[in-house]
Specification:
Elements: H1 2-31, H2 35-58, H3 64-69, H4 78-82, H5 95-116, H6 119-148, H7 153-175, H8 185-230, H9 233-242, E1 255-258, E2 264-270, H10 275-291, E3 295-301, H11 308-325, H12 330-343, H13 346-352, H14 363-375, E4 383-386, E5 389-390
Parallel strand pairs: 2-3
Antiparallel strand pairs: 1-3, 2-4, 4-5
Length: 410
């Protein structure tokens, strides 16, 4: 649920950013409409969409465009082209990344160009990377047609966009050639610096974003694989059988929850003042509320033998809880346990149940439990055992629902 909410928030952010950019772009051309700059920037948007689709496909995510254009056949196979040596510049940088950076940088350059009213100069500057892109298209066509002998439709669409931009720029420069001699060299240098600065910033931002996305995607895949492995009941059973096994006989003075005849028997060792034990008890109640007929649980309150003072205090706490617990009817016993873990304070607990404490001395029972704890070398709390096997650290109490119907295999 948390991951789904994060994805929804990210999608909303992407929509807000995209709509904001589109509004600014439209406003700029409403104020200063130049058909060549508008057409080029519109083609840049198409190029951004195509290249981003290719990048997402390489990263393992598809969309409607990919599914429509990249169906494999004898003559068409996007994956063959996009996973070839030609498509990758380095381990983390592909030709599609360069294309995406190119179109994003070009889009923002044209956006600024339209605002500062420097159409002629801008066209001369933008023709330089456009010519380089045109050379790459010929190499791509040769590689797909002559070496791989298959075609990537998305790549061909990107090539079409680059050619369309080249012809628009070439026509504009041809018809406005006489105006160039009046341009100042300083202006050309300044705008050339702006162009490369934009491209460099765009490249850095995109590569950082992509690296983060790749890491997040890998982490998400590993998490999904781990959860698939973890949520396999056979894996849990196999892991349980590798854990240490202890034999504990139920006592008439034990704390019990659930169905006494259930096949899955949970034994949990708690310390009365343990914060982690409080959380574990809450998880146990949640499990029992959902699957009360499938489990029976015995709770063993451990004596804290860190020092004499703490030992005396925990013995007193356990004795108090046992007095209250056995003064309640079966329906109220669980409430008595819950109240202890909510309060974890002897005086407050006594005040709440002052009418139910009969001061029975359970010291001998507590000592017997302490001997069981020492015999089985249970040194930490909470310690959880399922049918005698210690629960692996990868699992929580709620994961035990995987064992329902499979207890006979333990």
């Amino acid at each position: 649920m948390k991951e789904e909410q994060q994805k929804k928030n990210q999608d909303k952010l992407h929509v807000v950013v995209f709509v904001s950019v589109m509004i600014l772009w439209i406003i700029s051309f409403v104020l200063h409409f130049r058909k060549e700059v508008f057409t080029l920037s519109f083609l840049s948007l198409i190029g951004i969409y195509l290249c981003s689709s290719i990048v997402w496909h390489i990263m393992g995510s598809d969309n409607a465009l990919i599914n429509t254009f990249c169906s494999a056949s004898h003559e068409r196979n996007c994956d063959t082209v996009l996973t070839s040596k030609f498509s990758r510049i380095s381990k983390n940088i592909t030709v599609a990344d360069i294309g995406l950076v190119y179109f994003i940088g070009q889009f923002f350059f044209l956006f600024i160009l339209n605002l500062i009213d420097a159409e002629i100069l801008g066209m001369y500057i933008i023709s330089i990377p456009c010519l380089l892109g045109l050379v790459i298209t010929f190499v791509s066509l040769w590689y797909q047609g002559m070496v791989l002998k298959v075609w990537c439709k998305l790549c061909l669409l990107v090539i079409t966009v680059l050619w369309a931009q080249f012809f628009i720029i070439a026509y504009f420069l041809f018809t406005n050639n006489s105006n160039f001699i009046y341009l100042k060299r300083s202006q050309l240098s300044f705008q050339l610096i702006v162009l490369f600065f934009l491209a460099f910033i765009t490249a850095c931002i995109w590569l950082v974003i992509k690296n983060t996305l790749v890491k997040a995607d890998m982490a998400s895949k590993h998490k999904r694989q781990f959860l698939e492995w973890k949520n396999n009941p056979n894996v849990l059973i196999a892991l349980l059988k590798t854990q240490r096994n202890i034999s504990i006989k139920s006592s008439e003075n034990d704390f019990e929850i659930g169905n006494p005849s259930a096949e899955i028997h949970i034994v949990i060792f708690f310390k009365p003042f343990c914060v982690h034990c409080k959380r574990t008890y809450t998880q146990l109640e949640e499990l029992m509320s959902l699957f009360s007929n499938s489990f029976r649980a015995n709770l063993q309150l451990m004596v804290d033998s860190t020092n004499y003072k703490r030992r005396t205090k925990t013995i007193k706490a356990i004795n108090t809880v046992l007095n209250v617990y056995y003064s309640q009817d079966n329906q109220e016993k669980q409430h008595a346990l819950r109240d202890w873990f909510d309060l974890q304070n002897i005086q407050k607990y006594k005040q709440k149940y002052q009418n139910f404490i009969d001061n029975t001395d359970y010291t001998k029972h507590i000592q017997k439990q302490d001997e069981v704890v020492k015999k089985n070398a249970i040194n930490t709390a909470p310690a959880i055992f399922v049918n005698g096997y210690e629960l692996p650290i990868q699992y929580k109490l709620q994961d035990l629902q995987l064992l329902i119907g499979k207890a006979g295999e333990l």
